[in-house]
């Protein structure tokens, strides 16, 4: 390569005369040596900054080019369908150290998952406590539930309803319990503030809180997922969250004492666990559950059934506890990890979205370059309605949403996987005698049994896919219970292989 001098015209006074900027930039004829040195210093600084910006742009372009070859997997589905739980299973498989680093930070969520239902129970008792059983109760069509410990409860000891009370003594007992439990209820607000970071978002009907990814950062300065701006894609030069989380956790190991709030709540729970237990076992509460006037979510039952373990001094959440812990996602959280197969390592970006109706608009910026989608539909939700719209049956909402996803032009090349999730809860509900046809009238007189119910829902999802399948893409369907680690990890391996096959095929075409 040769160097050339600048063309003479650049130096000509004529050009300068026509270019007011050149005249402005020209040093004054009266410039002293000191002024000249300062000017040169300023110019050198400006050049350094300009060069580093150029370098940043070049690196961003490189990273973007490279990230185009990455796998981008979207987890989609309505609120409470199990997306974040599935994300935790991916994390457990492909970045277990980050889950380890977060373990203690889950205490605040778990404590919230106990305190909140305790308030719900007391509120429901206020509402229905004294009403006699009515013929219209849902329980009229259902068998009496087994003891709560035997439902979903994991290792918690089965709880037998206490022997019968006279209505007056039961009321007195509940009033005393309510008074005793007030210090526990008093910590609810602090937990809410901690988890939501002070963000108050309406629309979470049952009083649950929406939480942006990154709540752990507010706890311990760590994050596996990184928050994304709700307006669109984040800057490409954000640090890789998973690696970042690992690095920080190595630098500053989590100390139980660090989390003052969790320690304080833990002390309250240790003191009042017997009262929580007594409330949970109380015959009036059990009656309300049997009559389905009190419908607690699966995570509430899980933690109430495990109250003595969770309330023990020095409690550290088990992996099962973390999988059952419930915190509502807000916006979109990206999780990055490397997946190796047949000697080839590919970076995966997993996007866990908030599924409530008010959150769904945040999904769209992630559609255009999605490699694959896992649509999570909770088939156990046939007897539930959306918090956001109490007239809409949750299975119906899932089907409508699935239709939108199948027919979306931006997603037409994405590999499509369907998880019919919460099959364990479906089993338990059917075993309790909850009648599908009562909520899904089109179910008619089909048997109220697991296989028949699942086949019915599967057929509906398959039909939606068939009717909205311009590209003739395959739908991969799995029956799942994503809190079951062993089964879910084997399904993830299966999904990974099928995504990889498609990925390699399209990479070969490029
Ligand atoms: N028993 C059982 N519980 C499940 C299953 N899948 C999810 N859960 C529980 O259901 C609750 C909701 O799950 P999440 O993963 O938080 O739901 P999500 O889809 O991320 O919800 P949003 O963030 O609101 O969109 C959690 O407490 C989970 O532990 C399942 O297959 N079986
Ligand atoms: Mg979530």
Automatic annotation (TrEMBL):
Keywords: GTP-binding, Magnesium, Metal-binding, Nucleotide-binding, Transducer. Residues 235-257 have a biased composition (Basic and acidic residues). Mg(2+) binds at residue 329. It comes from the Eukaryota. GO terms for molecular function: G protein-coupled receptor binding; G-protein beta/gamma-subunit complex binding; GTP binding; GTPase activity; metal ion binding. Pfam families: G-alpha. Residues 1-22, 129-166, 224-257 are annotated as: Disordered. One of its GO terms (biological process) is adenylate cyclase-modulating G protein-coupled receptor signaling pathway. Residues 129-140 have a biased composition (Acidic residues). GTP binds at residues 323-329, 421-424. Residues 141-150, 157-166 have a biased composition (Low complexity). Residues 1-16 have a biased composition (Polar residues). One of its GO terms (cellular component) is heterotrimeric G-protein complex. InterPro entries: Gprotein_alpha_su (IPR001019), GproteinA_insert (IPR011025), P-loop_NTPase (IPR027417). This is G-protein alpha subunit. It comes from Obba rivulosa.
